[in-house]
Design brief:
- The protein is an alpha+beta fold and 155 residues long.
- It has a single domain, classed as Trna Endonuclease, Chain: A, domain 1, CATH 3.40.1350.10.
- It contains two helices and six strands.
- A six-stranded mixed β-sheet has the order 1-6-5-4-3-2, with helices on both faces.
- Strand 3 and strand 4 form a beta hairpin.
- It is globular and about 40 Å long.
């Protein structure tokens, strides 16, 4: 059977590492710990906390979180060595509607580019490399979250 190609307009996570995230962030924590994530906004905040922990554990230095302007919001702005990284986080409870990283459409990518320009205009940060990463967090009841980090997910 030939390999399945992603549907048009969707990206594949094939070839990208998927990491099991420590149980401490998905069990036994405060309300909204992964088991009791009751609303979409709770799920999003929980996913962002997991993503920040994952990125900092992998050497990123977080500069900004949930930065807003009239065009929208940047989830995470971070440094990865000399690179300035604008990171979009998508969290889901399952893959019935696709993997979380597939939710970053071309329209969303265009908006993130605009938001990055606004952030750069508002901050005195300079970098030889700008990058757009996507972190997908699959929150599973009673099991570790699965984190997929797509570096340079789009230009």
């Amino acid at each position: 059977m030939p390999p399945q190609r992603p549907r048009s307009g969707h990206s594949s996570t094939a070839g990208h590492a998927v990491h099991r995230f420590p149980r401490a962030l998905v069990r036994g924590g405060p309300p909204g710990d992964g088991r009791g994530v009751s609303t979409t906004s709770d799920l999003g905040m929980h996913g962002e906390r997991i993503a920040v922990s994952y990125l900092t554990d992998h050497g990123f230095r977080v500069l900004d979180r949930n930065w807003r302007c009239r065009e929208g919001e940047l989830d995470i702005v971070a440094r990865d060595g000399d690179a300035l990284v604008f990171c979009e986080v998508k969290a889901r409870r399952g893959v019935g509607y696709g993997h979380p990283v597939e939710a970053v459409t071309r329209v969303k990518q265009r908006r993130l580019r605009t938001l990055a320009q606004r952030w750069l205009a508002a901050h005195d940060e300079h970098a030889p490399e700008l990058r757009f990463d996507v972190v997908g967090v699959l929150v599973r009841p009673s099991r570790p979250a699965l984190v997929t980090h797509l570096r340079a997910a789009f230009l």
